[in-house]
Amino acid sequence: MAASDQISAELWDEFHTVVNMTSRELQEWLSTGAAGEETEELPDRAGPHTGRRVLEILGKRRTDLTEDDVAVMRRVCDVVRSQRDPDLEPKAGGTAWRHGLMNIGHDPLKPA
Q1: What are phi and psi of 35, to 5 degrees?
Q2: What percentage of the chain carries pLDDT values higher than 90?
Q3: Measured between alpha carbons, how far is 79 from 101 in angstroms, rounded to an integer?
Q4: Residue 74: which residues within 8 A CB-CB, separation 6 or more?
C-alpha cells in the first residue's frame, strides 16, 4: 500500500493549514536560525531535523509521500494544534515558543 493511500484529505489539508510559512520563508528561517558566529550549517542541513523534513514535504506531491512523511505531517499537526487555539488567529507569545513553532513551519503571528 502506497503512503499516498494512507494520507487522508483531512491530514493533507490540515498540514497545509498549520504549516503557514511558504517553502522559501521556512528555508530562510531555518538558514538564519542555524547561522552562528563560529559555524554555519550547509543550506540543506540548516535548522532542526523536523523543520528540514517539513521543507521536503512541502516540495512533494501528495502521491509522492512516504510513510515517514505522513508520520511527520501528523506530528507537526499535533504539535501546532496542541499549542494554538483552534482558529489559528495571529497570537503573540514568548520568543522561544514562536521560534519553536516557526522551526516546523508555523508562524503564530501570520494570519490564518
Answers
A1: -75, 135
A2: 66
A3: 8
A4: 11
Residues near 44 by Cβ (< 8 Å), separated by ≥ 6?
52
Distance CA 68, CA 74 (A): 10
**By three-state DSSP, how is residue 40 classified?**
strand
The answer to whether the beta carbons of residues 107 and 21 sit under 8 Å apart is yes
CB 53 within 8 A of CB 74: no
Only one residue has cell 530562510, namely 28
Angle at 83 between CA 40 and CA 91, to 5 degrees: 85
Q: How far apart are CA 105 and CA 48, in angstroms?
A: 11
pTM as predicted: 0.83
Residue 66: what residue type?
T
Q: What is the pLDDT of residues 46-95, one digit of tens each?
A: 568 899 999 999 999 999 999 999 999 999 999 999 999 888 899 888 99
